Amino acid sequence: MESYGSFMELLYLITTILGISGNITIMILLIRIVWKGYKETKAEVILSHLAGANLLVCLTQGVPYCLYAVGVREFFTDVMCKSLLFIFRTARGFTIIFTCLLSCFQCITIAQNTERWLHMKSFMKKYMTLLLVAIYVLNMINNSSLLIFTVGARNITTIQFYYNLGYCVVIYPNQITIQGVGFGQFTRDLLFVITMTMASSFILLLLHRHGKQVLAIRASQQIKERNAEAQASHTVVTLVIVYDTLFGMDCLIWFYQIIMTTEVHPLVSIFRYYLNMCYSIIVPIIVVVFNKKIRKSLKCPLDAHKLHNINLKVFN
Fold it and tell me: Does residue 71 sit in helix, strand or coil?
């Protein structure tokens, strides 16, 4: 178990570095796209919020674990632990909500231009900012219980109902509370997962139909629009598949923690929280692979850097 703990520490360190650098890169590239005069789509707005949420997950889960692993203990006071876990769980909530919102928005975007779908498109575009504000407020309220039950690391031999992360502990007063909070979060996440899965399934169906329509389209502009829609849709569907997989693994571990009558080793909880970080490093990769605009924005600075190096060699 000690060697497994060392392996998890190394894994956390690598994942944290990749997650922070990857999501910062995505956020910078999205800002650069707007700075260069390109119009930022609503999907890219949601994507920027998703990247920000992933960055917070890495900063409030990966960094604390790495600090604790190298011997930093005095940093994790009760107040700090309350803040870290509240921000982490809130950011984790944002990742699933923004992924769900992105899949629903993309589903509406590529749907047929009937009166009902046009009304929904108009509503989403008009009230996107208000919707994002509501998501932030409600999700923060939903995770406020962590401000009450979270404390710094301490002796928990006499405590019965808790989640031990090593550097911080979430202590619940009784079994009803720990199960109520757990099932409440599980129900919320499950609803979002079902919604995004249904939206992604509908997107795949629409892509199949659009693929047949493209064969009959001769106008190059229409073909470009279809291809752009397909690229965005592939990004969304891939994100949903990855999240569904990680969510399933997370649920299995959580059910194991709930039904176990004996003490569960802290590394079990640590690995469960690590699964949440995995999504944070996968999202930037998926976005770069499928988003042509971001990939082009990433390529330009690299080309400029190569040109600068060539000029230096010539003048030297």
Answer: coil
